[in-house]
Structures
1.
Amino acid sequence: MTVQASVGSAEALPRDKVEHFDRELAEVLKRYPPDKKASAMIPALRIGQEVFGWCSPAVKKLCADRLGTTESRAEEVATFYVMFHNHPIGKHLVEICTNVSCCLNGGERIFEQLKAKWGVKNGGTTADGKYTLREVECLGACGTSPAMLVDEEMYERLDLQKVEQILGGLK
Ligand code: FES
């Protein structure tokens, strides 16, 4: 049975996850003066995303409520930074850099081949929900390009065969 959390949203947030969120947020808020806790929106959303999987409207409302600010403030921050997912994503997030160095060394080709293989657009999720594919800007690994992030882990000096190997090893 899903227990409704008291965030006043139409969406149910499981109580155990809300408690987890609150514990993590309490640690972060120790670093903020009590009257400035609204400034902790980025870490709050980050925790919310980790705990609940994505920044749903209910998660944004939870962050806003806990920080004593508005849902529109949470929305502004969540939609400004690309690391926040405002839609559900697949089990694994695959981010391919197609910026200049990576593009010249085959990053764009890898991205296009994965898109075609999975039948998704940029930001799309495979039909089985296993992968979400995103094109990203420079990952800071230009000297060892092309590079990709998979679930925030960096892989460098790639070609399609290596990418297939890495992705094939994911559960
Ligand atoms: S251009 Fe891809 S890591 Fe810099």
2.
Amino acid sequence: MSGFSLDWLRLRAPFDLAARNGRLATDFVAALPRTRPLHLVDLGAGTGGNARALAPVIGGDQVWHLFDDDPALLAGQGPEHSAWTARAGYAARDEATSGVLIEAAGARWCLHPRRLDLRDGIDAALAGPCDGVTMAAFADLVGARWLGRLAAIAAERRLPLLSVLAVDGRREWRPAAPEDGIVCAAFAAHQRRDKGFGPALGPEAPRQLAASLAAQGFAVTTAQSDWHIGPGDRAMLQALIAAEAEAATAAAPDAAPAIARWRARRQSEIAAGVLTVIIGHCDVLALPR
Ligand SMILES: C[S@@+](CC[C@H](N)C(=O)[O-])C[C@H]1O[C@@H](n2cnc3c(N)ncnc32)[C@H](O)[C@@H]1O
């Protein structure tokens, strides 16, 4: 288990969709080969939300390899794809273990779940057919050495790479609270804990990824892709506050009383309908020159 639940990925999905930078996605698509089908690799795919966001933008026949190591999330891919195709009016055929085949706008999209532990599996993930690499909300979990290896393989194979929605450390709670600084620092320390990929980059990930790719000769562009969460988004606010308070307390047990005050204050602000937050994310696009 990775610790990322199906419920959490569902809750964040509309905020992810609204936040993604459209220009970087369009430039990624323009750099892909014109031939079809395209083979695309998504790293840390969860239930496949990144493929669902990108497939219609890319257009034409596509084969997606959706790598993750969490069996529950991999099992969730089929049902999430099916719910999406029903909402969008596409036709879908569940191919059981081999994935889902979707027919949309004259194109066929094959979405394959691939179980792989990416800690030592990045070479294997990119060993098969691949025209482009994508990842969403994944770069901040890994370490600098792992990103360096990813950049080196992408350069060797001249693969365009699009990373979206990595946190960049900006958090703007409104109204501000006296405990924001303590909570934010403790939460950032928790994000940097080693998840098996070396010390996690957390908010440093977008900068480090961009630097690793530029060092390999890619043309790199970055753009902000922030979540904007308003007073009406109560479930998202509740989830964020609970996750942030728990992580911050684990990282800084001495600050537990201040963090508990922060949590109570934020909960009463949700109830009063006055709380908003912007969570900073960054998309990174790398194109072979
Ligand atoms: C924040 S979630 C993002 C999921 C998905 N990309 C999305 O945007 O909805 C991070 C994902 O990384 C996956 N992950 C974490 N460690 C992993 C590992 N060692 N190997 C493969 N996947 C991993 C988790 O299972 C989870 O699905």
